[in-house]
Amino acid sequence: MNFTKLVPSVFYKNLSDGLKLFVDCLQFSIEHQDLNASQPYCVLKKDGLSIMLFQDEQLAEEHNPELRLVTNNIEEVYAKVSSSHPHLLHPNLNKVTLRPWGAKEFAIADMQLGIRFQQWE
Questions:
Q1: Distance CA 14, CA 19 (A)
Q2: Phi and psi angles of residue 26, each rounded to the nearest 5 degrees, phi first
Q3: Which domain holds residue 105?
Q4: pLDDT by residue (tens digit) across 22-64?
Q5: With 0-12 CB in 10 A as exposed, 13-18 as middle and 19+ as buried, what is 57?
Q6: Which residue, 41, 47, 36, is CA-closest to 10?
Q7: What is the pLDDT of residues 58-70, one digit of tens each?
Q8: Which residues have a Cβ under 8 Å from the Cβ of 74 and sit 6 or more positions away?
C-alpha cells in the first residue's frame, strides 16, 4: 500500500469559524468551496497540506479533534500567530515550551478544534 496524503475533515457549526482559524490566522488558501450544498464545505491548502472544513452542527457537537502541525521554525510560527491572533492561544500551552518528549510545542484552539504546533529537536 502507498499513501501520498492525509486530508482531515473538520466539522464546524458555522463554517466561517473554521475559515477564521485556517485562512485568516494560519494563511491557508481556499482551493474549492460549495457554500450552497446541503452540507457546505471548503477545501483548504497550504504548503502541500490539505484540510476539508464542513458545516454540520450535529457532527460539530460530536467531534472535537486535535491536529498537530510540525514545523522547522516554531518561533516564526509562534511570532505570527501570537501577534495576529493572540486570543486563539491555548491557556495551557500559550508559549513555546520544550516538552519532556523532546519537542518544542505551543497550541491554539477555537470553539471546535485544537492545533498543537511542534518542532522536533
A1: 9
A2: -95, 0
A3: 64-121
A4: 999 999 999 999 999 989 999 999 999 999 999 999 999 999 8
A5: exposed
A6: 41
A7: 999 999 899 999 9
A8: 96, 104, 105, 106, 117, 118, 119
> What does the CA dihedral 29, 34, 39, 41 come to, rounded to 10 degrees?
-10
Q: What is the pTM of this model?
A: 0.89
Amino acid at 74: I
C-alpha span between 27 and 108 (Å, rounded): 14
Do 38 and 68 lie in a common domain? no
* Residue recorded with cell 450535529: 58
Please give the grid coordinates belonging to residue 98. 520544550
Identify whether residues 59 and 70 lie together within a single domain: no
Cell of 102: 523532546
DSSP string, 10-70: EEESSHHHHHIIIIIIT--EEEEEETTSSS-EEEEEETTEEEEEEE-HHHHHH---EEEEE
